[in-house]
């Protein structure tokens, strides 16, 4: 039985764990957070990704968690309504479409449960080193060969272990990509915008209704979740890359608050909620472009290898489809991981290119139906 380590317990990693476990692979998933990450924005499953979810047997469960927006209002800088729609929202596009919008945390929970008890999830740990020779060989901690080929993984907390393959599904700031391919700066392309997302009580009394305000180069979107008991608030603003070096949460909140402070209407209350939020997330809008997604026995999946950025509206779909395509390639290639990785890239690259293009076609808004249809036609799923 093959052994595969997946770094990252998000959408891509959990979906791949399901497919590999179903194929009889011994799967370990390592995640640096203490548990499944809460918070985050609503995400969309559309196009080919809907076919993947159906093949996983999860379509009904995912639909049960979909958001229930009735429409949206677009506001000017003073909070006056300048446009209203009951046919579409900025976050999900047409309300009457087959696309499914749901909270990221709900989707990850469903995927995690689907992966089953047979998958080993290790939380609150991370990969610190990968050791493989030119042939992909490695030695166990006790000096034993890794079955004629393997990759020895050192963890921050756990003991070193050897696996047949390592999959980096650990997002834009992937540790696997850094350790196996080089520094992030070689592969990332900043799109000139930043996004911050956090949760607050529904102090605006919104009832399945989105609000979007923009004034100059900054703005925000607000929508209720959890039966209108909570708000998910998204701040966005144009700016260059983040300052060099790590930012702690307080410093990151201060950077975001400074950029949003000039906005009017409910901004003071929103900034107060920002400082009180325990699930604050913020990052630069960035794409990842790489000449190859594999090196030896290491391969990248989802945002780690080909992040399209939230501006595309397709990151979740890329993760789900990528997991399916990678698992199918491994299944079809037997023990030849190089052939599997080559097949995976051959299948996915046209699909990735079209979806990354959506981030510049209509940044911050829903992708056009024609664009999503082009992306869907770029990849016909295989068994």
Describe this structure in words.
The structure is a single chain. This protein has 383 residues and is α/β, with parallel strands linked by helices. The chain has helices at 11-22, 48-55, 59-64, 104-115, 175-181, 249-260, 267-276, 303-306, 315-333, 337-361, 369-377; strands at 3-7, 26-31, 42-45, 71-75, 81-85, 88-89, 93-94, 100-103, 120-123, 127-131, 151-155, 161-163, 165-168, 188-201, 209-215, 218-225, 230-238, 281-288, 294-295, 298-300. The strands form 5 sheets. A 7-stranded mixed beta sheet has the order 5-4-15-16-17-14-18. A 6-stranded mixed beta sheet has the order 9-2-1-13-20-19, sandwiched between helices. A 3-stranded antiparallel beta sheet has the order 10-11-12. α1 (11-22) packs parallel to α9, α2 crosses α9 and α9 (315-333) packs antiparallel against α10 (337-361).
Break the fold down into its secondary structure elements and pairings.
Blueprint: E1 3-7, H1 11-22, E2 26-31, E3 42-45, H2 48-55, H3 59-64, E4 71-75, E5 81-85, E6 88-89, E7 93-94, E8 100-103, H4 104-115, E9 120-123, E10 127-131, E11 151-155, E12 161-163, E13 165-168, H5 175-181, E14 188-201, E15 209-215, E16 218-225, E17 230-238, H6 249-260, H7 267-276, E18 281-288, E19 294-295, E20 298-300, H8 303-306, H9 315-333, H10 337-361, H11 369-377
Parallel strand pairs: 1-2, 1-13, 2-9, 4-15, 13-20
Antiparallel strand pairs: 3-8, 4-5, 6-7, 10-11, 11-12, 14-17, 14-18, 15-16, 16-17, 19-20
Helix pairs in contact: 1-4, 1-9, 2-9, 6-7, 9-10, 10-11
């Amino acid at each position: 039985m093959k052994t595969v380590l997946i770094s990252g317990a998000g959408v891509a990693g959990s979906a791949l764990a399901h497919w590999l476990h179903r194929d009889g692979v011994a799967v370990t998933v390592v995640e640096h957070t203490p548990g499944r990450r809460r918070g985050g924005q609503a995400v969309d499953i559309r196009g080919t990704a809907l076919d993947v979810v159906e093949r996983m047997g999860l379509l009904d469960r995912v639909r049960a968690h979909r958001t229930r927006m009735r429409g949206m209002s677009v506001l000017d800088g003073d909070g006056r309504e300048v446009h209203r729609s009951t046919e579409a929202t900025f976050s999900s596009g047409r309300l009457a479409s087959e696309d499914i919008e749901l909270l990221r945390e709900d989707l990850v929970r469903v995927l995690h449960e689907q992966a089953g008890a047979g998958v080993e999830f290790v939380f609150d740990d991370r990969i610190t080193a990968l050791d493989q020779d030119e042939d992909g060989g490695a030695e166990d901690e006790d000096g034993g060969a890794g079955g004629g080929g393997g990759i020895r993984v050192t963890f921050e907390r756990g003991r070193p272990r050897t696996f047949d393959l390592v999959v980096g599904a650990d997002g834009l700031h992937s540790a696997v990509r850094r350790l196996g391919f080089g520094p992030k700066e070689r592969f990332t392309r900043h799109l000139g915008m930043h996004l911050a997302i956090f949760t607050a009580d529904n102090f605006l009394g919104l009832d399945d209704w989105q609000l979007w305000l923009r004034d100059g180069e900054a703005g925000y979107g607000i929508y209720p979740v959890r039966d209108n008991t909570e708000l998910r608030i998204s701040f966005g603003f144009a700016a260059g890359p983040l300052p060099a070096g790590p930012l702690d949460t307080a410093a990151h909140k201060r950077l975001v608050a400074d950029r949003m402070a000039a906005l009017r209407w409910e901004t003071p209350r929103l900034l107060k909620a920002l400082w009180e939020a325990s699930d604050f997330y913020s990052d630069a809008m960035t794409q990842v472009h790489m000449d190859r997604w594999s090196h030896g026995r290491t391969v990248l999946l989802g945002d780690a290898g080909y992040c399209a950025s939230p501006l595309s509206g397709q990151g979740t779909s890329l993760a789900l489809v990528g997991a399916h395509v990678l698992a199918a390639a491994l299944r079809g290639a037997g023990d030849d991981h190089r052939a599997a990785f080559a097949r995976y890239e051959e299948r996915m690259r046209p699909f990735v290119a079209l979806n990354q293009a959506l981030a510049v076609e209509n940044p911050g808004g829903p992708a056009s139906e024609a664009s999503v249809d082009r992306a869907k036609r770029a990849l016909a799923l295989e068994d």
